[in-house]
Amino acid sequence: MRTADFDFELPADLIAQNPPSARDGSRLLVLNRSSGMVEHRQFSDLPGYLRKGDVLVLNNSRVIPARLRAMNAKTGGRFELLLLEEVGVNEWWVMLRPGKRARNGTKMVITDAAQRTTPIEATVLESNKEGHRRLRFVGAENILNAVEVLGEVPLPPYIRRPEKAELAQDRERYQTVFAQPPGSVAAPTAGLHFTHELLHAIRESGVEVCFVTLHVGLGTFGPVKSEDLAEHVMHEERYELSRSTAEVIDRAKARGGRIVAVGTTTLRALESASVQNPGSVTPGSDRTKIFIHPPFDFKIVDCLLTNFHLPRSTLLMLVSAFADPGRTGGVQKIRRAYAEAVRQRYRFFSYGDAMLLV
């Protein structure tokens, strides 16, 4: 298939710039994969689509304030850094702008929100073919802790914040209520809709709730630059599946219960964990660069809750594959569902509305 098959027109005013006033106050489009029928609901209606014996699996990775500002130690030129992946303590791959000014050996001083210098410095060690830089930080015991004070919420570029003061609400709302281990540089956005109260109600209905951890990085939000999907290579991302979660999932599969993945990152982790033994999941820590696009046979996930995704993105390709497993008809199903969402003026992308595929 070709990247152009996953293009669509989206009015700019449907790109959500702010979260809804209540986390579970968003809308929910429900797509029946067999019939292609669409229902329009509220997210708070989700428990009505879950059954006793189902397992709801969420990604509990915590978003770090991964955007930093820096100044060239020699020239005073300004840099913007986006932490991408930790190599080791105080050593990270980063997206650096402007990259042309950051040759190997370049030293920079990290600045605070007021653009004042801090004791933390970074040195460019190398660059890769994607243009990312590997930096070594000094002056902090662990830069991962320092970003909690110095870093900014790594909002995607389609969310505009003219004033940095507006980022205050994003510290809370661009984070799930169940986030735990830090490591993501973008939110697992399907989980943003959940409240503690909604999760409690889901558990009370006989649905088991458990978690995986996939630290969202460039593999999730990186663009597809090739026209032929066969030429696209995903970046690796780290994930962890606990033994207790694996046991819950395997028991449910054995008794015929459904596995409901919250988000494309959760689905990627679960399907990656089933490669060694299709039909069950293997616990442990691993890395995945699985690229899911039509046609794809899903071994674990039976239902998918997700947001509305960017044109030509790997996330849209994954959802299209899930809409018609093992075949390519999901492309048209999702195209029709998205066209309906546009007509009904659903809100798109990270802070937007949700979609449930059953």
Explain the overall architecture.
- The structure is a single chain.
- The mean pLDDT is 94.
- The protein has eight helices and 17 strands.
- The chain is of the alpha/beta class and 358 residues long.
- Strand 5 and strand 6 (78-88) form a beta hairpin.
- The protein has two domains: 3-63 and 173-357, QueA-like; 67-150, QueA-like (Thrombin, subunit H, Beta Barrel), CATH 2.40.10.240.
- The strands form three sheets. It has a nine-stranded mixed sheet. The protein has a six-stranded antiparallel beta barrel with strand order 5-6-7-10-9-8. It has a two-stranded parallel ribbon with strand order 4-11.
- Helix 7 (314-323) crosses helix 8 (330-343).
- 21% of the residues lie in helices and 27% in strands.
Bulk shape: globular
Runs with pLDDT <50, length 5+? Answer: none
Q: Strand share of the residues?
A: 25-35%
In N-to-C order, the SSE pattern is EEEEEEEEEEHHEHEHEHEHEEHHE
CATH architecture of the largest domain: 3-Layer(aba) Sandwich
**What's the number of structural domains?**
2
CATH superfamily of the largest domain: QueA-like
Taking the alpha carbons of the first and last residues, their distance comes to 24 Å
Q: Please provide the count of β strands.
A: 17
- Quick check: average pLDDT? 94
Task: Describe the largest sheet.
Answer: 9 strands, mixed
**Structural class by helix and strand composition:** alpha/beta
Based on CA atoms alone, the radius of gyration comes out at 21 Å
Helix content: 10-25%
Give a brief outline of the structure.
This protein is an alpha/beta fold. The protein folds into two domains: about 5-65 and about 175-355, QueA-like; about 65-150, Thrombin, subunit H. The chain has helices at about 145-150, 165-175, 195-205, 220, 245-255, 265-270, 315-325, 330-345, and strands spanning about 25-30, 40, 55-60, 60-65, 65-70, 80-90, 90-95, 105-110, 115-125, 135-140, 180-185, 210-215, 235-240, 260, 285-290, 305, 355.
